[in-house]
Specification:
Helices cover 41% and strands 17% of the residues. The radius of gyration is 27 Å and the shape is globular. It has three domains: 261 residues, Spore Coat Polysaccharide Biosynthesis Protein SpsA, Chain A; 222 residues, Alpha-Beta Complex (Spore Coat Polysaccharide Biosynthesis Protein SpsA, Chain A); 81 residues, no CATH class. It contains 21 helices and 22 strands.
C-alpha cells in the first residue's frame, strides 16, 4: 500500500533544482513542441538551472536564446543514440543544485512541479519522484506572456487531456548523489525507465508517484526521428539491449510506487462519499452499518426524490457528515452529477435503495486503490442477492476477465457485468471527465461513462473479485427489452459523437455498430420479439464487412457465442430457425 505525502499548494517554492534533458532536432512540429516545453521550465519559480545535452540541430541556438547551459559533447552508440550513463555523469559534474530532474523535452511543466519537488525533498533525503502525464494535441507556439496561461493549460487537460499509461514515465526527480552508477542505456528507447524504478526500490529509496499534484503535459508528436518509429523505440534492438544490460525483469510501472502525493486540505476530507438513492425507513440502519463496520472516513449524500414524503425520514438523521440533495423533478443523472460536485470524498459510490454495502467493503475497495497508487480510476466488483441459504453471489469478472481489452465493439460483454452499487469511482476523475450523460437511461449511463473514461480519457478500470453489496432486485432493468435496446443504441451514438474519439477508433465505428446490432438482434430473439430481431439484423447489414450470405453465417456464430455466455446452447435447429425467421420476415415486408 502506498503511503501519502501531502502537498500544500499555497506554499511558495524556494528551493532550486536542476532540470536536464536531451532534445531531438528542432525542426517542424517537434521543434515547436520542444521550445514550448523548455520555455515552460525556464518560467518556473524559482527559475531552475537548465542543462541541455547533445548536438542535435537547434539545441545550441535554443540554449543561447534562453541563456541556459549547453553540453554538446555526449557519448553515443554506433547508431548515434545518446547514452544515458554519460548524460547523468556529465550533468552531475556541473549541476549546481542538490536536486536533479531528468525531463523529456516534450513535457510542459507548471508551478505545481516546483511546489511538489520542494516539499518532497524537504521530507525525504533519498527518493525517486515520478508520475503520469497528460497527452494533448498541441503543435503551436504557446504565448507564455499570458498571465492566465496555467489556468488555460489545466482547462485544456480538463477538457481534452488523455491520461497516459502507468508505464509511461517522463520525469525523474532525485537527489544528486543517487544513481551514481548505471548501465550504458540508449536514451529514448524502452526499459531504462523501468530500471530506474526497480533500482530505487532495490535500494529502498522511496518511489513517489506525483501524478495527483503534478500536471505534466505531454505534447503529442510522431516518432519519425526513430527508424522504425514508435515500435522500434519501445521494442526494437536498442530497447532489447537496454532490457538485457539492465537485467530488467519487472515492469517498473508507476503503479508500484510506495508513496503518492496528495493535495493537502486544512479540514480532514472523507475517503469515500456514499450517495444513497430511494430513501426509506431502512436508511438509518444502512448508515449505522457502514459507520460501525468501516474504519475509513465516510460522508453520506442522501438523494431525496420527494421532499414532502421523505422529509420525516431525513429529519430523523443526526449523523455527522450528511448532506441532503433534493432531486425534485429533475433527471436522476443531473442529480448524480450535482452530488459529484458537492461530494468531498476521494472516491464515490452510488447506492441504490434496494442495495446495502457488505461489511468492511469500503475499506477493501479503498485499499485496492491505494495499493495501486494513482493508476486506477474505476473499480468494479460483484454483488449478492437472495436471503438466508439462498444467497447467490454474482461474479461478473468471470464474464469479462480482461478489462484491459475493453472496446466499443465488445459492448455486449460490458453490459452484463456492471451494477451501479458495485462500482467505486475516483471522484475527481469522474467529475473531470464530465460525469454521467443525462440524455441516457441511468443504467446505460453507467456503461457510457466507463467507456468514455477508459477509451477516451485514459482511465484504468479494474476488478475487485468479490461481492461488495447485497441487492434485493435481480438486476437493474428497463420496463422492457425494447426500451433497453433503444438505450443501448443511444450509448453507441453518444460515444461516437464525442470529438475526443480518435481517428483510428472512428475507422472501427462500422465494426462496432455491426456487433451491437447483432447483439440487439440476439436480445430480441431471446425475448421472443422476432420482428424486432429481424429489424436489428437487417440494420446490421449496412455495417457488415461481409457479403449477405457470409453475414448470415456470422449471425449464427455470434448468436451461439451469446448463448454460451448466458450458459445456454444454440443448437443447429435453432440456428436454422433463426435464419428462416429473419428471411421470412424480411421478405414479407
Amino acid at each position: 500500500m502506498s503511503s501519502k505525502v501531502y502537498i500544500t499548494t499555497q506554499i511558495k517554492s524556494t528551493s532550486n533544482i536542476t532540470i536536464f534533458a536531451v532534445p531531438k532536432s528542432f525542426h517542424g512540429d517537434i521543434g515547436i513542441i520542444q521550445r514550448n516545453a523548455i520555455l515552460s521550465w525556464s518560467l518556473l519559480k524559482p527559475k531552475p538551472e537548465i542543462i541541455l545535452l547533445g548536438d542535435e540541430n537547434g539545441t545550441k541556438r535554443i540554449a543561447d536564446e534562453f541563456n541556459i547551459i549547453h553540453l554538446s559533447s555526449i557519448k553515443c552508440n554506433h547508431l548515434g543514440t545518446p547514452m544515458l550513463d554519460d548524460v547523468f555523469a556529465k550533468t552531475k559534474k556541473i549541476a549546481s543544485n542538490k536536486i536533479l530532474a531528468y525531463v523529456n523535452s516534450d513535457i510542459i511543466l507548471t508551478q505545481d512541479f516546483s511546489t511538489t519537488v520542494q516539499q518532497v525533498a524537504t521530507n525525504f533525503s533519498e527518493f525517486l519522484l515520478i508520475g503520469r502525464r497528460w497527452n494533448i494535441d498541441l503543435k503551436t507556439a504557446i504565448d507564455f506572456r499570458d498571465l492566465n496561461l496555467e489556468k488555460k493549460l489545466k482547462k485544456l487537460i480538463w477538457d481534452r487531456g488523455i491520461l497516459a499509461s502507468e508505464t509511461a514515465k517522463d520525469y525523474f526527480v532525485f537527489p544528486k548523489h543517487l544513481f551514481s552508477e548505471m548501465p550504458e542505456f540508449a536514451i529514448g528507447r524502452g526499459y531504462w525507465d523501468n530500471w530506474m524504478v526497480n533500482r530505487a526500490l532495490e535500494k529502498s529509496y522511496p518511489v513517489i508517484d506525483g501524478s495527483q499534484t503534478i500536471f505534466a503535459l505531454h505534447q503529442n508528436h510522431s516518432y519519425t526521428h526513430v527508424r522504425g518509429s514508435k515500435t522500434e523505440a519501445y521494442f526494437g534492438k536498442e530497447a532489447e539491449r537496454n532490457k538485457v544490460i539492465g537485467k530488467v525483469e519487472k515492469s517498473g510501472s508507476i503503479g508500484i510506487s510506495n508513496y503518492q502525493t496528495k493535495p493537502f486540505h486544512l479540514s480532514r476530507l472523507p475517503r469515500v462519499s456514499v450517495v444513497i438513492f430511494d430513501l426509506d425507513e431502512r436508511i438509518v440502519q444502512k448508515i449505522n452499518d457502514i459507520l460501525s463496520r468501516e474504519s475509513i472516513e465516510v460522508e453520506f449524500l442522501l438523494i431525496a426524490t420527494d421532499r414532502a414524503k421523505e422529509k420525516h425520514i431525513i429529519d430523523r438523521l443526526h449523523f455527522p457528515k450528511i448532506s441532503k440533495v433534493f432531486r425534485e423533478k429533475e433527471n436522476e443523472l443531473v442529480t448524480k452529477n450535482r452530488a459529484i460536485e458537492i461530494a468531498k470524498g476521494e472516491f464515490i459510490v452510488f447506492l441504490k435503495g434496494d442495495c446495502c454495502l457488505l461489511p468492511g467493503m469500503l475499506n477493501k475497495q479503498v485499499s485496492y486503490f491505494d495499493d495501486r497508487s494513482s493508476t486506477v480510476d474505476v473499480l468494479l466488483s460483484g454483488w449478492q442477492r437472495g436471503e438466508g441459504e439462498t444467497v447467490l453471489e454474482l461474479e461478473p469478472w468471470k464474464l469479462l476477465p480482461d478489462l484491459e481489452d475493453i472496446h466499443i465493439w465488445k459492448f455486449w460483454q460490458l453490459w452484463q457485468p456492471l451494477r451501479e452499487s458495485a462500482i467505486m469511482f475516483r471522484r475527481d476523475r469522474l467529475e473531470m471527465f464530465g460525469g454521467f450523460d443525462p440524455r441516457l437511461h441511468p443504467v446505460a449511463a453507467n456503461i457510457e461513462v466507463v467507456l468514455r473514461m477508459v477509451l477516451l480519457r485514459g482511465s484504468k478500470v479494474a476488478w475487485l473479485p468479490e461481492a461488495t453489496c447485497h441487492c434485493d432486485r435481480e438486476r437493474e432493468d428497463w420496463e422492457n427489452v425494447v426500451a433497453m435496446a433503444s438505450d443501448i443504441e443511444s450509448v453507441v451514438n453518444c460515444f461516437f459523437e464525442r470529438s475526443l474519439v480518435p481517428e483510428w477508433m472512428r475507422e472501427l465505428e462500422s465494426r462496432a455498430r455491426y456487433h451491437v446490432m447483432v447483439w440487439l438482434g440476439w436480445l430480441m430473439y431471446e425475448a421472443g420479439e422476432k420482428e424486432r430481431m429481424a429489424e436489428y439484423l437487417g440494420r446490421s447489414l449496412s455495417y457488415s464487412p461481409y457479403q449477405t450470405q457470409q453475414t448470415a453465417v456470422s449471425w449464427v456464430q455470434r448468436f451461439k457465442k451469446f448463448a454460451e455466455s448466458s450458459g445456454e446452447e444454440l443448437g443447429e435447429r435453432s440456428a436454422l430457425d433463426l435464419l428462416l425467421k429473419y428471411f421470412d420476415i424480411a421478405e414479407g415486408r
